[in-house]
Structures are given as C-alpha cells and as structure tokens.
C-alpha cells in the first residue's frame, strides 16, 4: 500500500539520526515533528531565529512573538535559544544543520530542486527561505507525492519548473518509494505498494 | 535618543528614502512607527522587509496609502497580502524578490562595511540570472551586494536610555541586522529602563546602532497563523 | 557533548590540523584545552589566534613544544612573546599576519558559508599585496577568503548540557566566531548548568556550534597588563 | 609653548563632540580618556568587544576577563555591552564609530597613515587592529609629535614607512600644531609656540 502523508512523515522521522539539528520546511514536512521520539535529542531550527522549537502553541500558550517560519504560534523547549536572522541563516548556509526536510514540485535524478515557483506567468514570485534551505544542511530530504494530481512524475530527468537549488537534494521520500538522488542518479531504497519494475515504467528516470 | 512621541521619532524621513522595516509577518513588526510614517507623509519609498504586508495594517497600510515605489522582500505573496497583490498586478509597485538569507546577509554586509560577497544561495536559479558567479574551492557562488537603508524602523522589547536593546523571542528576527544597516535607526519598544538595568552580557543591539527610541503601548495584534 | 576530562575533550585531534584558538591575550584563552592538546600530541599544526603566545604558558607552551608549523594571527609581537620571537627569528615557524578585523570576518565567513568577500581593511597596504582588489560604489576593497578550522579550542563561562554557551565580559572576544568556523568545536567552561537554566534570550553561542564541553577549575592567570 | 602630551590629550578631548562613540588607540591616545567630561556622554569602544568601557581598573577591581585592547585591566560603566570580535569590528569597518584617535609614525598631507611597521627588515610584523581602526570611523584623528627624535617631520608629502591605510586620517594633533589633512592637502588650524611661517620652513608639505 502506498503511504498516507502521516505514515510518510513517520518514515522520514525514523531516518533522522538522534541528536540531529533539523529544519522542517513549511507544509507537509512540519508533520515530521509529530513522529520524532522525545528522547531522540533532535533539535528543531526555525529560520526566523530559534533553536529547540517546541510543538504548536494552543490556547493560552499562544504568544504573537513566538512563531515558526510558517508564522504559526509555537512553543519553546528547555535549552532553546533565540538569534537574529543573519545568525539564523549563517547556521543554514554555513552547513551547520544536519538535515532539512522540504516539499517540492520537482526533483531531478541529480538532486536539483524546484519548489518555489511554478513558472506560471501571472504568479507573484515569492522565495522566502527556500533557496537557503536547499543548500543549507548536510543532508536535504524532500517529501512529496511521487506523481502530481494529473499523474505526472515529480521525480524527473531535468526540472522544468524554475530551480530552487542545483544538486542539493540527497533523498526523496514519497508515498510510493524512498529514492536516493545525486551525482550517481536515482536509486530506490524502499517501495510502498509498488514494485521497482512498475516504478521504472512510470518514471522517465533510470532507477538503480 | 528617547523621543517623546512616535511622530517625533519618525520626523525628518525624506521622500525617496530606502526604509528597512523589521518583522517577520507580524512578529517584530513596528506597527506604531509605520503608522507614524504614514502620518509623517514621506513618499516614493523603497521598503526592504521580509514580507509585503498582511491584511490592512502595518506595511499593508503604508502600501495602500500609495507611499511605496518599490518593495525588496523575500516573500510578498501571502494568504492576506491582497493590498500588495493588487498594486503589483496593476503595475503600480516594483518588486525585487531576494532569498531570505541573502536579504539578511546583504544588510549585514552594509552594516559591516563589506563591499560585496560570494554567496552559495541561489546558484543556478532565476534569482541569480545576470549576476557575477565564481567557483571557489570547487563550490559555485553568486556575488551579492549590500543593502543599505537611509532609515530602519524596528521593534524591540526593552531599551535603556543609551539605546541598548533587547528583544523578545522570535520577534528579534531582522531587527538587530537592520539596526546596523541604516543611517538612522528608529526603534519602538514596550519599555524604557534606566541605563544600567540591562545585563551588559545580554544586550543584543548596542546603542551605537540606535538613533531614536520611542515607547509604545503593547498592541494585541492578531497572530496570523492562528486565524 | 559533556566530556569527563580535558584529555577526553581533545582526543582525536589530528596531525596537520588547523586549530582556531580563542582568547585575546590571556582573556578567553583556553589554557586547559591547550595543555590537553600538548599532552594529546598532535603536531604540524596551523594555529589561528589573535596573538602568538605570552610567557611560557598557553599558546606559548604549545609553540615551545614544537607542535606548530604556522601561526595565523594579527599581533604576534608582544613584550613577553619570546617563545614565538625565537622560533620566528630562527626560521622554525611560519607567520601569516592578518588584520584583526579580517581575522574575525574571515572566520565568520567560513562559518556562514561565504566564499569570499570584498573588505575595506588593508587597501593599499603591504598586507593587500598580490590580492584581488575592486572598486565598488567608489570605494576600494580587497578580496579576502574564509579561514576554516578543523578544530576550535575556546573558553566560555557557562554551558548547559546541550552546549549552549555564555561568556564573561571581554573574554568573549573570538570564541563565538571560532565556534562557527570549525568542524569540531571544543569548549572549556567554569560551570555546566542543567539544560533550561540559561536564558534563551542571552545564549551567545547556541549548542549547534559546539561539539564537546569540559568543565575546568578556574585558574588565576596573571593579567598581562597589570605586570 | 609647545604642548605636553597631557595638554595635547586635553586638546583632542575638547574636540570630540558630546555623545560620540570613540575608540582610543593604544599608547598616547589612551590619555584622551582622562580629559573627557563625565557629562559629555562619550562612549568608549574597545575593539576586543565592549562599549562604554570605564577607566583602568585598580586593586580589587582588576578582573582578568575585562581588559582593553592594550590588555590593560579596565572597568565597566552603566550601559556597557559586550559582543564578539566580528561584531566589534563590524562597528569599526561599517563606519559606526564617530571618532578614532590613533598614534602614527607618519601621516601624509593627503591623509595616508603609517603606524604599524617601521619597515625594519628584522622587525616581526604585527598589525593588530591598526588597519581596521584606520578605516574604521567617520573621523580618524592622529596624535603624534610633529617631529621624530631625530628632528625629521612626521607629517610628510608621502609616507615612506609601510602604510596602514590610504587617505584615512582627517586631522593630526601634534605638540606644535593641529593640522587638517585630506584631499585638499594640509591646512593648519592652530599652532602652539610656533608660527605658521616657522612650520612652513620645517615641513616639506605645503600648508594652507
């Protein structure tokens, strides 16, 4: 069976080593936090200036001065720290984070990422921290469905949407398979409810 | 250093200024100073901020008042950025989209006297088009230039009478960087304390970067994400 | 994160490493870690530090033990830098003199992923000879490259068990910058407190930059200027 | 009468505007602090990471963690702040200080500064923060004797010692005269026990 978004988040969480410093992108990657073991010592970074971010705030916990990068109110865990934007992006761009988990429109077999712009001519461009996150961790994981709503593959030989970063993704987690990408091309690690041969037929990318 | 009112704090901002505006969404947004700027009347402004306004308040109100020629930001498009969206789609405002980390680092460079820097973000993407690139030690970089402000409008938590500042939680965001990058830094705070009351080890923005401070009443702004 | 001894903290430093060593004179100098490094035995080191040792202790002892191939610093020559002076004059040590601000900014660049930067310091001086220069907006700059460490040895005041650090007065100096610029950052502190005891607003070096922490006894080092 | 070093320090102090942020270099410039009015609101910066530095520490005040750039123990005034070296030099190099006061071996009429190296072939080079200070303030004042021990002028048409900075000095305070320097050449503001004509005879630099 293919994975539900929650099951997929659990699989990503399973693969994050204990004591890692991790940034979870806006949207589906945020769900990964719900599956991280409390004892794993994983520290969440939010690029608006905080380490050891806690879960979403509820009720009286809501503090307008304490939000995540999606502007959702969050909480603070013991051992947290606050810092300004240049220091926060220094952490990313300087390669200090262990893992970033991002969403994507497309990922190429070489690890190129397209996740900030659909290329639609009337769209208002907005990049936020996407390009910094793309190059901002020792490992960049992408979480996405393997096919879009029209059934087109999102793992592609070459991205056709505008790029967010070149050769920056190390692994793609999808509802149907976990696939390593990079200089050696795409290599399937695990499949869910589908065979490798079926994947090969549906993707334009050679799969090892 | 300590202004008696918001209007006094924002006096003298000139038409055509580049104004750095703190805040990430609503957290750290200097609402009172922006309202003061609207009353003050300066126009033809270039605004540098992470976003381009939400709803009808803060930056969105300044945009709506027709005072802004250009916005430099990382993320203009949001669920409630309808004021910006309409100005942009009708061609009445210019937009320069800058990756968030570049926005911060380019302002830091302005504050630090750096002439330009080779940056790893954006290589090979449309936002690097036409920019100088260089390979250094096997990695590709794009050359980025400082963003300097004539004025910075920021919000902090507490100030002392020398202009030393501390912030609160993630409302810190761009404030300390913008304070270094502007010719004149104007700060709204919730509290002004006597000099000597802030822990010298915990001052985030030293007063050398601050020109005017004004105390404002705490405001119950809506948390965007909670809507 | 928390090492049981200095020897455990410095274990594994390899011959030929570039070691960033905190301190400005004696303030912030990680004496215990340097003594540990001498015991540990790594040699052929490049040391990056503001000075090149004073008297017979700290960096001077490491130099005297013959472990250092090259020193990168801003100010090697001091009243009591006789260990360095003799090594230098007898051709047994290399020296790269770097303006103090460049030393700090080049390490920050390493920590921040910046490939190189155009810097106003040193233009037209012997320390810029042979370096790329460029005029930007009418001002002249020299292109400077990052200084990255394999290891940083620094001294802080307090750490929590996650490696968050606070410093004390001007002993802060290069510590926070070096912590960002090294692959492995090793810190000696006077006190380890439970996680949650440091004010999140006042943490200077977040634990993400710290690999090992060891508590050491306070040492009554001589104040140089007081002699 | 020519000025004593203490009188010269008082003259420099007189010319520093109230509420300025000031860095006083090692050596003779340090004396300027003794002549700054307590009410003038002048804030001293020390490049090893502090603003609002107080006077030298004595007796029990001595704290090895609190020194100035000359490594002399100092004290802390109310409203002080501490910061790391990159931030400290950002203040200088970004032009945030109002005034730096430095010593010099030579200053040229155009404002070039030589104060870090005599050019002696056996000298061990050591620059410290000199080059950053030279370009690190809105105004750079130099304090020096106008002639060296051998009677040679230290205000020169061109520096012969290795440079610290190009066209960076705005004014020279000496025992015999205060002289503005810069793109328009040297211009005497005030003399002490000497006439302008006498100065013209002893210097190789045209004096306005």
UniProtKB/TrEMBL annotation, chains A, D:
<protein>
    <submittedName>
        <fullName>3-oxoadipate CoA-transferase subunit B</fullName>
    </submittedName>
</protein>
<dbReference type="InterPro" id="IPR037171">
    <property type="entry name" value="NagB/RpiA_transferase-like"/>
</dbReference>
<dbReference type="InterPro" id="IPR012791">
    <property type="entry name" value="3-oxoacid_CoA-transf_B"/>
</dbReference>
<keyword id="KW-0808">Transferase</keyword>
<dbReference type="GO" id="GO:0008410">
    <property type="term" value="F:CoA-transferase activity"/>
</dbReference>
<dbReference type="Pfam" id="PF01144">
    <property type="entry name" value="CoA_trans"/>
</dbReference>
<dbReference type="InterPro" id="IPR004165">
    <property type="entry name" value="CoA_trans_fam_I"/>
</dbReference>
<comment type="similarity">
    <text>Belongs to the 3-oxoacid CoA-transferase subunit B family.</text>
</comment>
From TrEMBL, chains B, C:
<dbReference type="GO" id="GO:0008410">
    <property type="term" value="F:CoA-transferase activity"/>
</dbReference>
<dbReference type="Pfam" id="PF01144">
    <property type="entry name" value="CoA_trans"/>
</dbReference>
<comment type="similarity">
    <text>Belongs to the 3-oxoacid CoA-transferase subunit A family.</text>
</comment>
<dbReference type="InterPro" id="IPR037171">
    <property type="entry name" value="NagB/RpiA_transferase-like"/>
</dbReference>
<dbReference type="InterPro" id="IPR004163">
    <property type="entry name" value="CoA_transf_BS"/>
</dbReference>
<keyword id="KW-0808">Transferase</keyword>
<dbReference type="InterPro" id="IPR012792">
    <property type="entry name" value="3-oxoacid_CoA-transf_A"/>
</dbReference>
<dbReference type="InterPro" id="IPR004165">
    <property type="entry name" value="CoA_trans_fam_I"/>
</dbReference>
<protein>
    <submittedName>
        <fullName>3-oxoadipate CoA-transferase subunit A</fullName>
    </submittedName>
</protein>
